[in-house]
Structure formats: C-alpha cells, structure tokens
C-alpha cells in the first residue's frame, strides 16, 4: 500500500505533469470505485488542473474553471477552496496505482462504467494524454470521490495530524500516545484518525528504528516518546528524500529496496543479524526483529504474546 512518502512523491510528480492541463473527461470503468454522484464526473469536462497535493494517503487534484487565473503558487495548498473549485480525491488502498499515459487510448467496445480488469478509471486530458488509475487483485478497495471540498470525504475529515507537518511536535505525539492508553503501539501508528499517512510498512520501520515491540502500550515514559518521535521523523524523512524527484513508475521499487524489516521475513536484521520474524493477521502481516525489539523473544500472535518491551 502506498504510504505517506510515496503518496507525497506521487503527488509531486503528478503536479508537475498535470498542472495547467485541461480535463476532457473521467471514464470510470469500476463503478464501485466512485463514491460520489454530486457533482457528476461530467462536471470535470473543460476544467483546469490547478494543483495536485495530498491529505495523508489521499491524493487531491484541485480543478478550477479553465478561464480562471488560479493556476499559481499563490493558490495555496490542496485543502484550500474557491467558488467553482472541484477536488478529485483518490485513495489507492492496498493495490491501487496511477500510470501516466502519453497517448490517447484506443477506443473500446466496452461501455463505460463496466469493470475492465485492473483499470478502475481513466482521466483523459485535452491533448489525449492522461492517467490510468488501476487496482490489482480481486479485493477492490480503491476509492474515488469528486467533491467541492476535501472535507466532504469522511476519511479526510477524520484524519489525524500529518507527522511531517511543522506543528507535529514531540509534545503532540506524547498527547496522541497518552490518549491511546494501553492500545498496542503498532495499531496506534497505523490509525489514520490518530496520525495521518503511516501504514503497515512504515510503522514496522519506525518501530524497528526505535527498538520497540509492536505490542508495546502506547502510553509510555517521556524518554520513550522522544525515542519514538526521533525514529518516526528520521524514517519518514529519509524515505521522502529518497522518493523526491522519482517518477511514479519508480516509487514502488524504491520503497521495497530500502525497507529494513518490513517484507523481509526470514532475512537477517541489518542491525544485529538476527532472523526477522513476522506475525500474521487475518488481512495483514507485519515483521520485526526479536533481538532489537522484543528482548530476543518471538511474538507468537497478538493474543498469546503481548510482549510489552
């Protein structure tokens, strides 16, 4: 699943490619992916892409009337709203991605609105180029909204603070952890309503960097909060720096090649050499190093092995 660093880099790449272009249409081929009906997708015709930004793991393409003079840096961030402005919001979920298409698509005999394999939607610009929004696998979770205000999307309205924002201080993190009480730390880091943008992979990486168990209670002493905060900032900012300037097609490989523990079950820990273990849930799996994070003891599962330190 794309997380904060990849979505941030993807938004920057798309902003550079789409800003200033006029939209011809949005063809939705996976009907269930579109979560809104007002305004209709036909309202995008003739609108200008003013910017592409993000809210946590949500992409936000801001569109204005093509005659507007709002395509400038003075417009502000993706969350700003003006009269007549629309926002095309995309959440890529676990298996979604966006591919740039430079040429006009070959006409299809299939009617619009019917799913055609991995293609969920296609944004076509006035010059025939555009984006293919795809989702692999059979479990379809990718979601698209067309709204007048980003906060009309419940997931955005309920987002916690962005961990890379200047106002996200160590004190803010301490308050989030204290409010979570004895909830497992792994789950707190992944909760989008508590902290925006961190998912399964980077929560593994942050906990490994902080040398903390995924099952450690969230409410912790100030020294541990400092350690966790420093690990969070370092791992996310390093990932952001690596992803900066990459094309969308390069982001997945970059992320995978630089992970220390996530997705590396059975490999040696890059810090201590112990074998990386994993815990399997019904719908996800996480990895950790026993020596670095759990005092050398393996975690059997979330019920039987609630190791606290």
TrEMBL record:
The keyword Plastid does not apply. It comes from the Bacteria. One of its GO terms (molecular function) is damaged DNA binding. One of its GO terms (biological process) is base-excision repair. CDD domains: BaFpgNei_N_1 (cd08973). The keyword DNA-binding applies. InterPro entries: FPG_cat, FPG_N, H2TH_FPG, Ribosomal_uS13-like_H2TH, Znf_DNA_glyclase/AP_lyase. It holds the Pfam family Fapy_DNA_glyco. Keywords: DNA damage, DNA repair, DNA-binding, Glycosidase, Hydrolase, Lyase, Metal-binding, Multifunctional enzyme, Zinc, Zinc-finger. Coiled coil: none annotated. It catalyses: Hydrolysis of DNA containing ring-opened 7-methylguanine residues, releasing 2,6-diamino-4-hydroxy-5-(N-methyl)formamidopyrimidine. Gene3D superfamilies: 1.10.8.50, MutM-like, N-terminal (3.20.190.10). Residues 260-294 form the FPG-type domain. Residues 2-113 form the Formamidopyrimidine-DNA glycosylase catalytic domain. Belongs to the FPG family. This is Fpg/Nei family DNA glycosylase. It comes from Humibacter ginsenosidimutans.
């Amino acid at each position: 699943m794309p997380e904060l660093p990849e979505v941030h880099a993807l938004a920057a790449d798309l902003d550079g490619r789409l800003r200033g272009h006029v939209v011809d249409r949005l063809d939705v081929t996976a009907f269930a992916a579109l979560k809104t009906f007002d305004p209709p997708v036909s309202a995008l015709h003739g609108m200008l892409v003013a910017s592409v930004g993000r809210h946590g793991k949500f992409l936000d393409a801001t569109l204005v009337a093509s005659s507007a003079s709002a395509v400038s840096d003075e417009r502000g961030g993706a969350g700003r709203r003006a009269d007549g402005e629309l926002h095309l919001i995309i959440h890529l979920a676990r298996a979604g991605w966006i591919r740039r298409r430079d040429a006009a698509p070959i006409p299809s005999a299939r009617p619009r609105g019917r799913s055609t394999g991995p293609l969920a939607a296609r944004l076509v610009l006035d010059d025939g180029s555009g984006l293919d929004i795809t989702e692999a696998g059979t479990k379809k979770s990718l979601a698209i909204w067309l709204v007048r205000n980003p906060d009309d999307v419940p997931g955005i309205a309920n987002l916690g603070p962005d961990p890379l924002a200047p106002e996200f201080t160590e004190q803010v993190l301490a308050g989030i952890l204290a409010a979570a009480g004895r909830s497992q730390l792994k789950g707190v880091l992944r909760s989008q309503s508590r902290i925006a943008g961190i998912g399964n992979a980077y929560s593994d990486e942050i906990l490994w960097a902080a040398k903390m168990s995924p099952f450690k209670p969230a409410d912790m002493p100030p020294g541990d909060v400092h350690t966790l905060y420093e690990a969070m900032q370092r791992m996310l900012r390093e990932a952001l720096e690596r992803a900066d300037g990459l094309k969308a097609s390069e982001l997945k490989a970059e992320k995978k090649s630089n992970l220390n523990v996530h997705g590396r079950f059975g490999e040696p820990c890059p810090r201590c050499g112990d074998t990386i273990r994993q815990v399997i849930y019904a719908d996800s799996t996480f990895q950790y190093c026993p020596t670095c994070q759990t005092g050398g003891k393996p975690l059997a599962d979330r019920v039987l092995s609630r190791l606290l330190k």
